Amino acid sequence: MPSVQATAQLVPAGGQGAKTITRALPQEVPLALSFNAVTHAVMLATPADLEDFGRGFALSEGIVATVKEVLDIDIIEHEDGSEVAMTLTARRAAALSERRRSLAGPTGCGLCGVDSLAQANRAVPRLQKAARISEAALRRGLAALPLQQELNRDTGAVHAAAWIDLDGNLVALREDVGRHNALDKLIGALAAAKTDFSRGALLLTSRCSIELVMKAATVGMPILAAVSAPTARAVELAQQSGLGLIGLARADSLLVFAGTPLAPA
Fold first, then answer.
1. Which domains occur in the chain, in start order?
2. What is the value of pTM for the model shown?
């Protein structure tokens, strides 16, 4: 279950008439991501859409190039958490093993399972297609976003990542306590549906940090629009990769930080 019920004291302004209420809270559990029986990362995540999460993580971190290279996914429940156990093709498993052997220093810097400073600054491919979306279509997608955030409507405590087509129709949405986890789940779901990543836009309800731009650019998403602001490094990477980056996307305005993602009116 992605949420649990908890009791809390509702204290109104002034402290008068406090009462006990029941409130839904999102779950946050340890989740191990393993490839060919070797643990690659341990995340704290919402226990939903875990196959999407594993598939999307493998793609967005450059572990595989296509979902066909993930041969199998098993969700294994352990006493202290869950495991997304993935089996890769022999070629991809060997490449991952070599990548781990070449790491400098200990594991666990905390950036999306990244094992070294070099990995935190890994290069991403420059996008070949610079899709554009009309402002009207983008605003249609943004308006539809909160209507589909079921877990956040219940808890008020999770992020969402959504994909819209170039007409502004919301195609898919995933939620998680971690913003990068939500994006990985979305990428995994879209890849399973054989979505063309070059024909749409990514919407995020969170601030836009560099790892989100890195994941989007790695899988070929040409446009990223976040309701909050990006970091300076996120803007720099978006410019280098050719990704159109929009921040502070609100009802009355938005800011284009990189590229030319908006089609002429």
1. 29-120 (3.10.20.10), 135-258 (3.40.140.10)
2. 0.92
